[in-house]
Amino acid sequence: MSSTEISAITTKLLEAKKAKGVTFANLEQLLGRDEVWIAAVIYRQASASVDEAKKLLQCLGLNDDLVPELTAPSIKGLGPIVPTDPLIYRFYEIMQVYGMPMKEVIHEKFGDGIMSAIDFTLDVEKELDPKGDRVKVTMNGKFLPYKKW
Of 3, 5, 49, 90, which one is the catalytic site residue? Predict the structure, then answer.
């Protein structure tokens, strides 16, 4: 698979999700895991346990033949350096504009370190607004100070 195409496994899972007429929010209720994490499993950016994989496949009406793929450690972050999808590009653009300011504010508040992408959650919410609905994205990661030796 090239870095710009969706894997056959992801395509199969998304087609099954569409055929069943379920949303990621529905899957969150059925699996007891956050909808963003479930989407990350489907896009092969996170790994499920055997039980989670079986439950997801059952919810999508698929057999267990994909359990090994869904439980294997995934290669994260594949894709073009500059994303071409407009929505994903906007996040890239946000980091271009606000990345350094965010970094400075984080260092000012926490010191020299990083925000973990391993001990991390991401929530996406819809906020109704008469001027146009708003997308609210909350990233929550553990602060990891750089070690001195």
Answer: 90
3-state secondary structure string, 95-148?
HHHHHHHHHHHHHHHHCCEEEEEEEEEEEEEEECCCCCCEEEEEEEEEEEECCC
Catalytic pick from 3, 49, 104, 116? 116
15 is catalytic: no
Fold of 8-71: 434 Repressor (Amino-terminal Domain) (1.10.260)
What integer pLDDT is reported at residue 8 of this predicted model?
92
In this prediction, the residues of the chain whose per-residue pLDDT falls under 70 are 1-5, 78-79
Residue 33 annotated as catalytic:
no
Structure pTM? 0.78
- Which residue of the set 3, 5, 49, 93 is catalytic? 93
Is-catalytic flag, 116? yes
CATH code for 86-145? 3.30.1160.10
